[in-house]
Each structure stands twice: as structure tokens, then as C-alpha cells.
């Protein structure tokens, strides 16, 4: 008899784990299934990778396509959302007259990918400032639309921001860009499993997202969706055998992304079983999982905000299963912990209290923000532990 959803995971019981947003956490049963697949692979690598992999990937892609609301022909597997962003940016034929819009909330790795391609191709990156905390949808939508010029070629936009943890109003933004004939690349790293997706209806030109975060599949499982009218122009970041294929039984898109060299495909193959396993574990299936995590994240937010005597940073509808809360600046203005630019306070929460909760510097190296996550294995007591420890550490600064 299951006493707590936490039993489904192998997380250390001594840790208060409030950072599902960074790397996810995979249920024990799925890890065991992945190990079975690995044993099958190693029993006959030729048969697994050469003869049977493609139909197995097709089946996994179909189950994922059903879950996120798109046709499986428009869906490819990638190791992570950053790889999906790189694939699109490296495939587009930019020229020096182009402009690409991005916001100040963009995930650092994907912003680096954009800057790298911009330096190579010579186009201009236009950064739009969106406030946080934020109160109204218009505060996000209007600045982005105001940045459009006749030179705008693409918008790169987080669906759910990483450092600030709020849901961007992507639907009206995508609609307006489509009306103007401008492509959109949506970095949905956190979206699958956190919010309901209908990618065909959403209308983004390109959409990438992780499955190893909120779906909880093994690490290294992510998706890239490409709208049908663009599908033949997108290539994987690694060019391999599919580039000069003579096959005509499927699109070059699926062929090239289906094999970029030898790797372990088991994270992708575990996606369907993860979706079904967690869906069956919770009465009400995935809608109930998303709603539970959303409500728990808001409860955790309220506990921390009351402890710090600060207002909630956004209306409830801006949040999914993550909330980022501005906290007081470090009075000693100490530098972040290298090499990942974490606040020293994050390290103290871990060392002194065994709490995993990221603290980001945003939008500069002075302003600190605490991000909390809510997954099935979390409980209201986790956020109470965090609030007590946070007050203790802030009093020491």
C-alpha cells in the first residue's frame, strides 16, 4: 500500500529536495525499466540499435505526440531542450540584416547559443526587458510586440522561465507573430508535464522541451517539434549518416534526428512508460498531477513569502509547479559561488540544512531570487523546513 508518492522515487530521505526544476528526478520503477532496456541493448547491440530501434522510437514518439498534442511526424527526440534550440538556430539561414528578439528572462545556455550564432552570422540580437515580479499579461506581451521591426526574423522565448519561474503568455504572442509572418522558437524546457500542451494548436514554428524534468523520464530525454512547413530545413546539431540518405520512406527530418551517432536511446524509449506509470499512480491522471503540483507550489510560495514578509511575486495563474521569490540582497555583496554563479546562500542551505533549493542572481549579480519546485514527492512540510532555515541563514548575513 502506497503511503506517500515520495516512495515512488529513490531520493535521499535526509534531503529536502525542492529543486525538481533543474534536473528532474526519475521514479525508481522507470530506472529499473531503463536498466532492463540497457541489458537488452548490450545482449545484442546490433539488433537493438540497427534492426529494432527505429520502430521503437516511432512508438515512443507517437505516445509523446499524443501527450503534447501534435502529429508524431513533426516530432524528433533530442537529449535536452538546449540541443533543440541549437538545432533550430544553426539550421536557419540568417543574414546580417536580420534581428532576433529575446527577453531578459531567457535561459542562459540558450541565450549563449543565440549569441554564438549571432556572432557567426552577424545578425542583431534585440533583448526585451520584462519586469519581475509581474502583475499583468500585458507587461510581458506588449514589450515583445513593440520590439518587432521589418528586420525581425525570429523570436526566441521561454515558455516557462528558468530563473524567474513564471509562465510566459506564449499564446497571444505566437498568434501575433504568426499574423506578421515571423517565426517563433519556444524554449519549453519546463512545460511538458507541468502544463497542458497542444502544440499543433499553439502554432509555434519551433518548440523544444524536456521530458526528464516534469514528465520525470530518465535524463537525456527531450523533444523538438517543427511545424510542417519548416520541417525539411531543420537539421540536428550533429550531422551524421542521414545527411546523404537515399531513403524515401520517411522525412529527412526523422532520418537525420533518428540517428546522430552511437548513443544510449533508453531515455527516449522510457518516455511512454513514464507518462503511463505516473498517470496511473495518481487518481485523475496527469491533469490531477499538474493541478496538485500547482496548488502545492502556491502553498509553498505563501509559506516562504509570509516568513520573509514579502508579497507574492505574481498572480497565481502565472505559476505552474515553480515559483521564484525575490529575497533580500546579500549585505556583504559577496561574489557568487563559481563555476555556476550560485549565491553563497544556496550553498549554506545545502551544507547546513541539507536543503536543495536554487538561488539565482537576476537580472544582475546583486538581486537574489529563490526558486521552489513542487513535485509529487514534495509535501507542505518541505516548505516549512525551508522557511525556517532561510530565516536562520539570512539572520547570519
Structure description:
- The chain is α/β, with parallel strands linked by helices.
- It has 14 helices and twelve strands.
- The protein has two domains: 5-18 and 285-396, Aspartate Aminotransferase, domain 1; 53-275, Type I PLP-dependent aspartate aminotransferase-like (Major domain) (Aspartate Aminotransferase, domain 2), CATH 3.40.640.10.
- It has a seven-stranded mixed β-sheet, sandwiched between helices. Strands 9-12-11 form a three-stranded antiparallel β-sheet, with helices on one face.
- A hairpin with a 6-residue loop joins strand 11 (359-361) and strand 12 (368-373).
- Helix 4 runs parallel beside helix 5 (108-121), helix 12 (285-308) packs parallel to helix 14 and helix 13 (344-353) packs across helix 14.
- The relative contact order is 0.16.
- The mean pLDDT is 96.
Q: Give the H and E element order.
A: EHHHEHEHEHEHEHEEHHHHEHEEEH
- Count of helices? 14
In the predicted model, the low-confidence regions spanning at least 5 consecutive residues are none
Radius of gyration: 21 Å
- Biggest sheet strand order reads 2-8-7-6-5-3-4
| Strand element count | 12
Specify the oligomeric state. Answer: single chain
Gap from first CA to last CA: 45 Å
- Mean residue pLDDT: 96
**Which sheet architecture does the biggest sheet show?**
7 strands, mixed
CATH architecture field of the largest domain = 3-Layer(aba) Sandwich
Considering DSSP H and I runs of 4 or more, what fraction of the residues is helical?
Answer: 40-55%
Amino acid at each position: 500500500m502506497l503511503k506517500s508518492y515520495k516512495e515512488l522515487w529513490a531520493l535521499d530521505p535526509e534531503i529536502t529536495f525542492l529543486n525538481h526544476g533543474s534536473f528532474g528526478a526519475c521514479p525508481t520503477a522507470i530506472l529499473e525499466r531503463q536498466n532492463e532496456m540497457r541489458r537488452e541493448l548490450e545482449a545484442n547491440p546490433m539488433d537493438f540499435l540497427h534492426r529494432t530501434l527505429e520502430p521503437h522510437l516511432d512508438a515512443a514518439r507517437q505516445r509523446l505526440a499524443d501527450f503534447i498534442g501534435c502529429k508524431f511526424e513533426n516530432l524528433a527526440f533530442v537529449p535536452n531542450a538546449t540541443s533543440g534550440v541549437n538545432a533550430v538556430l544553426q539550421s536557419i539561414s540568417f543574414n546580417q540584416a536580420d534581428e532576433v528578439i529575446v527577453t531578459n528572462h531567457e535561459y542562459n545556455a540558450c541565450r549563449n547559443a543565440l549569441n554564438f550564432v549571432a556572432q557567426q552570422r552577424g545578425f542583431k540580437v534585440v533583448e526585451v526587458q520584462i519586469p519581475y515580479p509581474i502583475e499583468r499579461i500585458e507587461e510581458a506581451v506588449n514589450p515583445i510586440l513593440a520590439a518587432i521591426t521589418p528586420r525581425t526574423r525570429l523570436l526566441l522565448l521561454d515558455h516557462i522561465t528558468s530563473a524567474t519561474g513564471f509562465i510566459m503568455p506564449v499564446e497571444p504572442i505566437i498568434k501575433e507573430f504568426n499574423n506578421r509572418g515571423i517565426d517563433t522558437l519556444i524554449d519549453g524546457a519546463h512545460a511538458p508535464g507541468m502544463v497542458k500542451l497542444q502544440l499543433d494548436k499553439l502554432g509555434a514554428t519551433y518548440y523544444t522541451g524536456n521530458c526528464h524534468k516534469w514528465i520525470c523520464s530518465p535524463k537525456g530525454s527531450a523533444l523538438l517539434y517543427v511545424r510542417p512547413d519548416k520541417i525539411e530545413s531543420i537539421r540536428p546539431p550533429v550531422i551524421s549518416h542521414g545527411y546523404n540518405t537515399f531513403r524515401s520512406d520517411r522525412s529527412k527530418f526523422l532520418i537525420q534526428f533518428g540517428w546522430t551517432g552511437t548513443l544510449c536511446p533508453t531515455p527516449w524509449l522510457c518516455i511512454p512508460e513514464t507518462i503511463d506509470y505516473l498517470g496511473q499512480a495518481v487518481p485523475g491522471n496527469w491533469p490531477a498531477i499538474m493541478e496538485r503540483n500547482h496548488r502545492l507550489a502556491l502553498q509553498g510560495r505563501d509559506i516562504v513569502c509570509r516568513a520573509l514578509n514579502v508579497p507574492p511575486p505574481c498572480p497565481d495563474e502565472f505559476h505552474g509547479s515553480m515559483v521564484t521569490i525575490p529575497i533580500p540582497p546579500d549585505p556583504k555583496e559577496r561574489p557568487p559561488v563559481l563555476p555556476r554563479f550560485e549565491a553563497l546562500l544556496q550553498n549554506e542551505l545545502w551544507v547546513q540544512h541539507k536543503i536543495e533549493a536554487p538561488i539565482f542572481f537576476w537580472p544582475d549579480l546583486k538581486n537574489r531570487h529563490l526558486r521552489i519546485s513542487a513535485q509529487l514527492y514534495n509535501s507542505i512540510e518541505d516548505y516549512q523546513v525551508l522557511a525556517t532555515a532561510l530565516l536562520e541563514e539570512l539572520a547570519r548575513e
